[in-house]
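Long-time lurker. I teach an intro course on protein structure, and each term I like to show students one example going from raw sequence to a predicted 3D structure in token notation. This year I'd like something fresh instead of my usual example. Would anyone be willing to generate the tokens for the chain below so I can use it in lecture? Attribution to the forum is fine with me.
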Amino acid sequence: MPKTVWNAQWEDPNMPVKKIRGVDIVYEILGGSGPWVAVTPGGRRGLAGAHTLAALIADAGYRVLIHDRRNTGASGIAFPGNNESYEQAEDLLALLQELGTGPAYIAGSSSGARMSILLAQYHPEAVKALLLWRVTGGDCAAGLLAFNYYEQYIDAVTQGGIAAVLETEHFAAMEKANPVNGETLRQMGAEAFKGAMQRWLASFRAGFDFPVAGISPENMRKITLPAIVIPGNDKVHPPGSGQAAHRMLSNSVYWEVITQQVDADVDLVGWEMGTGTLAARFIDYLRGQERQ
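-- Reply from a regular --
Happy to contribute to a lecture. Here you go:
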């Protein structure tokens, strides 16, 4: 069984960077013309986690934006507010505005889907349509992701301060990708970091009783934008969460890519193998939207 990769490594130190809401955000644009599509992977994976899919969509005639969200890859570190996905959605909005894209198609997987839905909820004028895959939900996801995103870092900082945080796989990779990130955490200090993780953990837990993790059914039903929902096939991304998203998004279509369920927390290998089919589904949907 291959190890689950939650955090993609930084690939190219020459990527462009923009200061977005006080944080350096690393990004890449694939394709030179056509409608804009922003693609965001799951977990705390950086832009490398979406690169193959983005390239396939760009080859079909689209300009595709991928970026390292704050606290991923080589982008900067900051922990404002009460909800991580909301802060990342606001960053994406500001990045799109900085690039002058106008309304864009917003695609996201897992935590990227959660971020995309929040962007549509709060800023529908910035979104042409949602392209969602591997929607998160369920008890397994609630426990596993709470630990993966927050609890392990609360434990680390409690036991060994910021030095211990910088020894964890994710933040060690972030410091290696961008040494400024290590200094940012050291200046922040253990108490401020721990408080931020506890604040975000509380918000995360509060939203995991919903069929689609992080967004209430009431808010999901308020979204009337066009959408395509492609369900997941593992414990963190059960088909039921994708089906629930489709039912609640009144202007959505539901397509499947991987129908075989796996007894695993996350089926990254299966979805890597299915990237071509996923891209074809999304391209068909995008072309249909552009014809309207």
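Some talking points for your students: Residues 17-140+215-291 form a domain with the Rossmann fold fold (CATH 3.40.50.1820). The mean pLDDT is 94.
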